[in-house]
Fold this sequence. Notes:
The structure is a single chain. The protein is α+β, with helices and mostly antiparallel strands. It has two domains: 1-26 and 172-210; 36-167, Immunoglobulin-like (Sandwich). It has six helices and ten strands, in the order αβββαβββααββββαα. Strands 1, 2, 3, 4, 5 and 8 form a six-stranded antiparallel beta sheet that branches. Strands 7-6-9-10 form a four-stranded antiparallel beta sheet. A hairpin with a 2-residue loop joins strand 2 and strand 3.
Amino acid sequence: MKQNALQQVSRLLLILLSGLFANAATGHGGVSADGDLCVINIDFLQAYFTVFQPETSDSQEYCEDIPAVARSVFVMEYLHTFLKEMAVDFRIIRDVNDVGQYAKWEDIAAIEDLEAATVYYESPRVEPGGYYRASYAFDTKGTYIGIVTAEHPSEDRVYNAVFYFQVGGAEWGTIPIFIALLVLLQLGYWLSNGGFTKIKLRIAANRRSS
């Protein structure tokens, strides 16, 4: 009975870990993977999305998470021609409320002092060529939220995208705790199933046969 319980808990932890890594692989919030490319969803409007760090990694492209604490260039290539007529702005804020990868527009609206949380803001501009570029030199490792806002050219409508990202390497959070618990549970299952005794018997048998 005890062994079955240990097995069930181990399986549950494996499922939770798989879910955490799967979420990390499929993108955060408004940015998602489309094959080898990243797409940002500004409501129903889409653009290819890429981040470069020219001083540290030359032409290497990143989808969201950025490895180095350095200047980062954010590039959008509009897929909807309607975006070429819109004034688009870009804001980067610290994840002050720890909403993480599930950040959405309602979380941004709930921040009491958005300006205080903002580390970078690029005012609205129209890019008729369909390419939007913004650059910011990060000086602190941590978790951030990017916000893209597009204004309808003739109506009182605003479209937005919100995406969470990390700078300076991944923040593992509670994942190491899950892994440690899984190892301990597997060890407990092995011991309760006579694993140590079986090894002692095998060693004794080898000695007798030699």
